[in-house]
Specification:
The protein is mainly α and about 110 residues long. It contains five helices and no strands.
Length: about 110
């Protein structure tokens, strides 16, 4: 469920940014840039969101793991494998959101923007 909610939130962020810069995307298309390049720009932004979200999002659980370990005496810890899995899922989540948000970039028509 958290994965789906994450996809929706990241999509909202990317969609808002794409709408705010639609004239710039249309200008790039008028200059001869292909859709593939513009899609790369949106995917790059999605990757940046994944990195910037993962870093603070991984620091809080480190403390929560320690707090839970002390409170329950259970042998739990944040492992490298677990952190790597979460990072890969975060990148996949942002890539899915980027793929959905790129539909608007592909529909940018330079003639309609000016």
């Amino acid at each position: 469920m958290g994965f789906i909610v994450g996809v929706i939130i990241v999509y909202q962020v990317l969609s808002t940014d794409v709408n705010a810069h639609m004239k710039e995307y249309a200008t790039f298309k008028a200059m001869g840039y292909r859709n593939f390049y513009l899609l790369g720009v949106v995917f790059e932004e999605a990757l940046i969101l994944a990195l910037l979200g993962f870093i603070p999002g991984s620091l809080l659980p480190l403390g929560l793991y320690q707090l839970t370990k002390k409170a329950t005496n259970l042998p739990i810890a944040m492992t490298i494998a677990r952190a790597t899995t979460v990072f890969i899922l975060t990148v996949i989540m942002c890539a899915i959101s980027g793929a959905i948000a790129t539909r608007k970039v592909q529909s940018a028509d330079p003639a309609d923007m000016f």
